[in-house]
Amino acid sequence: MRRPFAWLMSLAILGGGIVVSAPPPDFDPDEVRSVFFESLDDAIRGQRPKLGEMGTGPSTAKSKATNPSADSGNNDGTSVWNVGADAVSLEDEIKRLRLRFEQGITTPGAFRSGGYQDARLDLTVLATWFAVINEFEGDVRWKDDAAVARDVLARTARNTQSGTIQVYNEVKKRAADLQDLVSGSGLAAAKADPDNDWATIADRVPLMRYAEQLLDDLSDATSDVATAKEEAEVASRNADLIALLGVVLTREGLDEADDPDYVELAEAMTNAGRSVKQAVRQDRWGDLRSAVGEISKTCANCHEQYR
């Protein structure tokens, strides 16, 4: 039984091999027309792809625009903080507030006699600006430490409800932290949440008091053309801060942030602040006072309805 098989194997080797193939299948064209396309062009919808266009995905910018951050982005994908403010305005204001804060906590007696209220205001505002820096686009100092600074300052601000010695000691620690931060040493603290929880950071009442202070200084710096030219840097910085503050007041978690009328007033304040900045930059001194007056009008309307 093995000899025929061996003979066939020998013949295949000596003769170069025997190839045995089955006959090609015979398909009925009518049966396969519903399964296969007659032409490749029929299988492609629209234009056939070109080699140079293959392998490209959606742009990063488009992806970001269609998925903006819930709280720090506009519907068009831009940052809510994109109001024309300069990073240096935030940096200079933090340094100014730090000095004012330190000068108000020199002794426990002065702190107990009412200085704690000023300290609470300064701590709240400082925490707010570090929260803004945390979300601010572009290069700005202290960004790496902004979230930590935001949390420790906001916590102490909440604790500063009285002028006790315990509160005073905690406040003094924050002054030391700010000194370390400004000097470049950074903050030694646990890692902070990268997202801002505005309900635990800012409070509308002290922020409105702060807005009044900014407006008073802005009004003094723009009282006449000569003064405005001399105090152009102050006017520009305060205009930036007022514009940013209008955005802060509408963050989720703050009082009335879901009230359309309140949001409209806050946005009007932001727009008026931008107008002041533009007038200063473009030397339009005739428009400057009217822009400052618009901020005053907006603040008065807001205080009347939401104080």
From TrEMBL:
Residues annotated as signal peptide: 1-21
Renumbered residue ranges of the record's region Disordered: 47-78
Entry keyword annotation includes DNA-binding: no
Does this UniProt record's set of keywords contain Signal? yes
PROSITE patterns (alphabetical): CYTCII
Q: Which residues form a coiled coil?
A: 211-238
Q: Provide the alphabetized UniProt keywords.
A: Coiled coil, Signal
Q: Name one GO molecular function term.
A: electron transfer activity
Which segments show compositional bias classed as Polar residues? 57-78
Q: Name one GO biological process term.
A: electron transport chain
What protein name does the entry list?
Answer: Cytochrome C
Look up and give the organism this protein is from: Crateriforma conspicua
